[in-house]
Amino acid sequence: MTQAMIGIIGGSGLYAIDGLEDAEWVSVESPWGAPSDQILRGRLAGTPVAFLPRHGRGHRHSPTSINYRANIDALKRIGVTDILSFSACGSFREEMAPGDFVLVDQFIDRTFGREKSFFGTGCVAHVSVAEPTCARLRAALAATGVEGLHDGGTYLAMEGPQFSTLAESRLYREQWGCDVIGMTNMPEAKLAREAEICYATVAMVTDYDSWHPDHGEVDITSILKTMHDNVDKAKAMISAAVPGLGGTRAPCPHGCDRALEYAIITAPEARDPALLARLDAVAGRVL
Ligand SMILES: CSC[C@H]1O[C@H](OP(=O)(O)O)[C@H](O)[C@@H]1O
Ligand SMILES: Nc1ncnc2[nH]cnc12
User: Fold this and answer.
1) Cβ–Cβ contacts within 10 Å for residue 170, how many?
2) Nearest atom (ligand 2) to Cα of 183
3) Nearest-CA neighbor of 35 among 1, 83, 67, 79?
4) Dihedral of the CA atoms 69, 72, 77, 79 (nearest 10)?
5) I need a labelling partner for 54 at 20 to 30 A (CA). Which of 14, 72, 78, 211 fits?
6) Residues with CB under 6 A from ligand 2
7) According to the annotation, is 87 in a ligand binding site?
8) How many CB atoms are closer than 10 A to CB 200?
């Protein structure tokens, strides 16, 4: 039986968490390059936790330059079974107001120019991301009952780093039915699925993007202020959710932890040994 270790990826404004027992920042080497930062490892109410600041401490990496593969590989390598991703986002819904949190259940991936898979020439795999976040983790987060929580929402992942034009904002909201927008949760969620790690996103609303007639353009100063106000709520949510996810971990009822079971289609004799070596942590279970 697997022991749960909860990975927490902190987005803009969330660069560390407090209250971890035996906390230490550890360096994790990955064959996929350098992760965003060291990982803060410790225990929360006895449950092993590994925290990674997505942009690095001091916010050094842009959404495009984050090495998402190294981040997910490093978390897998130190034993993470479940990831709670925390992210700042813009809102397309009047009722999803700045300060509210949205438990994302779907994504539209409009990012480009990022490495989106651990697999490729020499080892081809196709996993399903029809349900890109884990319903079991979402339920645990919903049960924390923090104020202003919306259970379900579609997150538009854009490349950035510039915010959207008004026409894009209206398109995503009116034609595509998106609820929130951010720049980082893709390919992160896809890579977590390839690594067989359950993944859930808490999108923390900081602004109304640019569509809202009463709120004007997105402005980074007010985003950072709202984000600053959101951080305590995020930390409270982490403290409330993590203990219930700890202990011996039954197989995920939604199959996130078995995503690779039938996904690799390259014949064993056609596989590239160099790529297989890099896949040791991510896909070692099935290789
Ligand atoms: C600081 S606003 C733009 C920035 O914030 C979000 O990052 P994260 O998802 O890591 O919180 C957004 O996606 C942009 O990268
Ligand atoms: N409006 C917005 N668009 C993209 N990413 C964001 N992060 C926070 N607000 C955002």
Assistant:
1) 16
2) 5
3) 67
4) -170
5) 211
6) 88-90, 158, 163, 181-183, 206-207, 209, 218, 223
7) yes
8) 27
27 annotated as ligand-binding: no
105 marked as part of a ligand binding site: no
| Secondary structure letter of residue 251 according to DSSP | P
Residue range 77-124, pLDDT digits in tens: 999 999 999 999 999 999 999 999 999 999 999 999 899 999 999 999
To the query of whether residue 207 is one of the catalytic residues in this protein, the response is yes
Q: What domains can you pick out in the chain, each with its CATH number? A: 2-283 (3.40.50.1580)
Q: How far is the CA of 166 from the centre of ligand 2 (A)?
A: 13
Q: Has residue 38 got a pLDDT over 80?
A: yes
Options 37, 179, 207, 257, the catalytic residue: 207
* pTM exceeds 0.95, yes or no: yes
Would you state the structure tokens that stand for residue 14, as one six-digit string? 């969330």
Q: What is the pLDDT of residues 55-82, one digit of tens each?
A: 999 999 999 999 999 999 999 999 999 9
